[in-house]
Amino acid sequence: MLERIRSSRKWWKNRRNEFDVYVSQIVLNECRVGNEEAIIRRQSLLAEASLLSLNNEIVLLAKQLVKAGVIPVQVENDALHIAYATVHECDFLLTWNFKHINNAHIQRSVNRIVEDNGYKPTIVCTPESLMGG
User: Fold this and answer.
1) Other CB atoms closer than 10 Å to residue 63's CB: what's the count?
2) Fewer Cβ in 10 A, N or C end of the chain?
3) Residue 133 scores a pLDDT above 70
4) Burial of 68 (0-12, 13-18, 19+ CB in 10 A)
5) Can you tell me the distance from the alpha carbon of 90 to that of 83, in angstroms, rounded to the nearest whole number?
6) Cβ–Cβ contacts within 10 Å for residue 18, how many?
7) pTM tops 0.90
């Protein structure tokens, strides 16, 4: 866990300015949980990000991911993360969630559903894998 935090901080420090950074309200809500000092640090960083709007297309795509059994209903916010990035045509979705988002087996099914709905799949990766050369 500590290594993931370090890697994320390194990406934010060294590469963040090479990208337009967007977040959803779900991300902002998730960042309000935990240690008070960590919450303040996260909120400070995310203040630089643009907020993605929620729309019906996002809700429908997320529901399809859950209905298909690709993303469990208990973690429907994971489906929303994917749908936000997809519908808003984000190039990358950065995550350390290997269970339901950054998972090659699940990603194959997600991409099929995304493409069947006329969207281009978003590249899902960790900040570490987006560090570059």
Assistant:
1) 15
2) C
3) no
4) middle
5) 10
6) 9
7) yes
The residues spanned by each domain of the chain are: 2-130
SS3 50: strand
Q: Is 86 left (phi over 0), alpha (psi -120 to 50) or beta?
A: alpha
CB atoms within 10 A of CB 133: 2
Structure token digits, residue 71: 């993303």
- Report the C-alpha gap between 111 and 123 in whole angstroms: 10
3-state secondary structure of 33: coil
Over residues 48-77, mean pLDDT? 97
48-to-11, 22, 42, 61 alpha-carbon distances in Å: 15, 9, 11, 27
Q: How far is CA 94 from CA 8, 28, 123, in A?
A: 10, 14, 9
